[in-house]
Write a structure and sequence with these properties.
Length: about 170
């Protein structure tokens, strides 16, 4: 177990660096020249047609969803900007708004590909752990997301200290 804790701690700087770089580079990665209709290697998820980043930029976003997820409201809620436009159909979604959708999605899920493919562990690795606690107004998570059911059997690196403003949390 101590080997995995050491590994987790050593991975932390790479995790933070990848997040910061993803935030800074998101406006570049989201440009139409880097978007394709076919997923890059190592990416899986939603089978519907959508926008994917080219292989060289795949690391900057999530490994299991299109880069245009916000555009279709598939997260169950839309960003406030998107509520003002009909974004259910790509034909009615102007190019600049699709670009904004991609940037917002990358900012929401920065470098998840890195956390899954590069820093993630296989579900059967002995010593894999997850500490997760939801306090009244704070969500804390350390370890690897052991509850995920990704088809490749990998569990994503997890580091979260996030304020949450939901009532009924213990």
């Amino acid at each position: 177990m101590s080997k995995f804790i050491t590994r987790y701690v050593l991975y932390w700087p790479l995790n933070i660096l990848s997040i910061l770089v993803a935030f800074v580079l998101a406006p570049v990665a989201a440009l139409p020249v880097f978007v394709r209709s076919t997923p890059p290697r190592g990416v899986y998820g939603d089978p519907r047609p959508g926008e994917w980043l080219v292989q060289g930029w795949a690391w900057i976003t999530t490994h299991d969803a299109h880069v245009d997820q916000y555009a279709y409201g598939s997260m169950g809620r839309k960003h406030w900007l998107l509520k003002r436009f009909n974004t259910e159909s790509p034909e009615l979604n102007p190019g600049w708004l699709r670009y904004v959708n991609r940037v917002l999605w990358i900012w929401r899920n920065p470098a998840y590909y890195v956390k899954h493919h590069w820093l993630g562990l296989h579900k059967d690795d002995p010593g894999i752990f997850l500490y997760e606690r939801k306090f009244r107004y704070l969500h804390v998570q350390f370890g690897w997301k052991t509850y995920r059911k990704d088809p490749d059997g990998r569990r994503m690196y997890a580091f979260r200290i996030k304020p949450e403003f939901k009532e009924n949390w213990s």
